[in-house]
Automatic annotation (TrEMBL):
Transmembrane segments: none
GO MF annotations, alphabetized: nucleic acid binding; tRNA-intron lyase activity
This protein's name: tRNA-splicing endonuclease subunit Sen2
Keyword set includes Lyase: yes
Keyword field: Lyase, tRNA processing
Region annotated Disordered, chain positions: 152-193
């Protein structure tokens, strides 16, 4: 994106977790003024700090976790890039794009979708120019016109520079006054979204994965109503047992437990972990987050003690072709599950009031990683 590594982006995304932390200035025992400054800072932060947990709606019909408040959606995304906009590529920006398209609101912020559309337009123009060059080159070769072929070298150099600029292209240019005054095309369904001349009804929500929900509940950042307990919020252990039961039998190889063990492993190492169904893997790992750079690794989870047959190397080769095409490193993550006896001992001793029981359960699993690379004989010969 154009905002990658910009000063505005770096200052905006500074929190890895949606948790407010009170930061006090240095206090010197022999200096009473430092105590006064610290007290004022503490009181001001307590007053302004966000002490309300984010409410997440659990839809049992489609087994999804949704955040509908625009303020909470932005807060979760800005504080660790959690969730995905239901009508967006990643960051929930549908409302901003709809306001520009339907209401003609001038907004300096450029969304990722707009940048992608602009780069695709530039890429299309580049391909047209490249095709023209190839046609001319073919024509001059048939005519055996050496002078014209030499003249094409400068054109080829310009095309090469144009191609390099596409990946670094910033936000699309602002439309001119004459362009902005043209009547905007609206669809019949757009009329149902308009509240007034400056406001639209937001129909987008932020959807969280089960792993993200369990992690945020453990961090005491969100709350989810439990319909089986008079709508009291889920505790960490209650949510864990509910999700494990929903994803299969209560056993060491439960799908949710396996995925969450890997998710928590990389989160504890400081990675930004997102779902990677788009590229045929289980997770992608960002060093900082989507606004800064593309994901560096695509993780495929394998169970050493799984009852399912081990997939052949043709399967992994297919995944690697997809992953390598988007310039990511493929990681095979092997996870060893505990025995049923070890698992049952910890599972039966879980206390719903003690969230640390989740960590005791995760400590039973062992994780090993291996980087997968395709060997190409023609590139590695001596």
């Amino acid at each position: 994106m154009s905002a990658k590594n910009s000063r505005e982006t770096v200052s905006k995304f500074t929190k890895p977790l949606p948790i407010e932390v009170i930061q006090l200035p240095a206090v010197y025992p022999q200096n009473p003024i430092s105590w006064l400054i610290a007290a004022i800072s503490f009181v001001s932060q307590v007053i302004t700090i966000r002490n309300k947990k984010i409410h997440v709606i659990f839809d049992e019909d489609d087994c999804s976790f949704k955040v509908t408040s625009k303020k909470d959606m932005d807060y979760l995304w800005d504080s660790g890039f959690y969730g995905k906009g239901s009508l967006s590529r990643s960051e929930p920006t549908w409302l901003l794009r709809a306001q520009k398209r339907i209401l003609g609101v001038e907004e300096p912020k450029t969304t990722g979708e707009e940048i992608v559309r602009y780069r695709r337009q530039l890429r299309g123009e580049y391909k047209q120019e490249r095709n023209k060059l190839l046609q001319l080159e073919r024509q001059y070769k048939l005519e055996n016109n050496e002078e014209k072929l030499k003249e094409l070298e400068s054109m080829r150099q310009k095309l090469s520079e144009q191609r390099d600029r596409i990946s670094k292209a910033g936000p699309p240019p602002t439309p001119t006054q004459s362009t902005s005054e043209e009547p905007k095309k609206s669809r019949p369904e757009d009329e149902e979204l308009i509240i007034d001349s400056r406001t639209l009804r937001n129909i987008e929500y932020l959807e969280l994965t089960p792993c993200e929900v369990l992690f945020l509940v453990y961090m005491d950042a969100i709350e989810i109503d439990n319909s089986n307990n008079d709508n009291h919020p889920f505790t960490t252990i209650e949510l864990l047992k509910y999700l494990v039961d929903m994803f299969g039998e209560v056993e060491p190889n439960n799908y949710l437990l396996i995925m969450y063990a890997v998710y928590f492993h990389y989160k504890s190492l400081g990675w930004c972990v997102k779902s990677d169904l788009k590229f045929s893997s289980d997770f992608v790992l960002y060093q900082r987050g989507p606004p800064f750079h593309h994901a560096a690794f695509a993780v495929t989870v394998l169970q050493n003690s799984s009852k399912e047959p081990f997939k052949n190397w043709t399967h992994f080769g297919s995944i690697y072709r997809v992953v390598s095409a988007v310039k990511k490193t493929m990681v095979l993550c092997y996870i060893d599950s505990p025995t049923q006896e070890e698992f049952s001992k910890v599972w039966d001793g879980l206390d719903k009031k003690d969230p640390e029981g989740l960590i005791k359960l995760l400590n039973l699993y062992t994780i090993q990683e291996m980087v997968y690379k395709r060997w190409t004989p023609s590139r590695t010969r001596m």
